Amino acid sequence: xxxxxxxxxxxxxxxxxxxxxxxxxxxxxxxxxxxxxxxxxxxxxxxxxxxxxxxxxxxxxxxxxxxxxxxxxxxxxxxxxxxxxxxxxxxxxxxxxxxxxxxxxxxxxxxxxxxxxxxxxxxxxxxxxxxxxxxxxxxxxxxxxxxxxxxxxxxxxxxxxxxxxxxxxxxxxxxxxxxxxxxxxxxxxxxxxxxxxxxxxxxxxxxxxxxxxxxxxxxxxxxxxxxxxxxxxxxxxxxxxxxxxxxxxxxxxxxxxxxxxxxxxxxxxxxxxxxxxxxxxxx
Length: 283
Description:
Blueprint: E1 7-12, H1 21-29, E2 34-38, H2 42-45, H3 52-69, E3 76-81, H4 86-92, H5 97-117, E4 122-126, H6 134-154, E5 158-161, H7 169-178, E6 185-190, E7 198-202, H8 205-212, E8 219-221, H9 239-249, H10 253-268
Parallel strand pairs: 1-2, 2-3, 3-4, 4-5, 5-6, 6-7, 7-8
Helix pairs in contact: 1-3, 4-5, 5-6, 6-7
């Protein structure tokens, strides 16, 4: 049995173009136990250009998370939403910014249904991490605010793909206005502690030391893309288990417990210890 639950908080599994659940098997072989499986951008999984593209993407992600479950000694849960870069793709197709934002908000509402009805445990949203025109930025922020409101409505965290930084006071304020606790706003691809939100730290050693030496909660992630054209991008599936072992060697046992036991329970209501079996269900 693993010494501790090991959760990769942000991994993509692509059942259409990539390894799919086989990547989860490699994660488990390295010592990983639990996964949050994020849907890839809708345009990578569905050829449709209407609202059905979102539903197809979410259904595929839920299916691959269930398949990943069979390879893990713990569990895999879907996190569903709309990639913020979709607004740029829609602009290229002639959408006005607000029109594109409205379409993306429909996608978020469909994702919220998957949370309300199960099996998804959180929403995904954000805003472009690259320079955009003012109208696109405004529409993106409106979509992000809508996601925060949906998270409060269905009672779930919201993972955000945003520009870099260590403080997001406007997002924390928007969350509070909508009744979503700042702790339930999780910034994906963080490089260390974040003021006003929970960081999901990309698992480079320097970033993890900064998070481990802080007093705040954090998660560990690889943002594994499951892209055959970019094998191992962003980080490979074995990275989080290896980094947990490295953190243990450095004496950061308490930080490991925060990231893999305490924070999943506090933010998602996930008990990684109770869901940990002695053997994978499909070894």
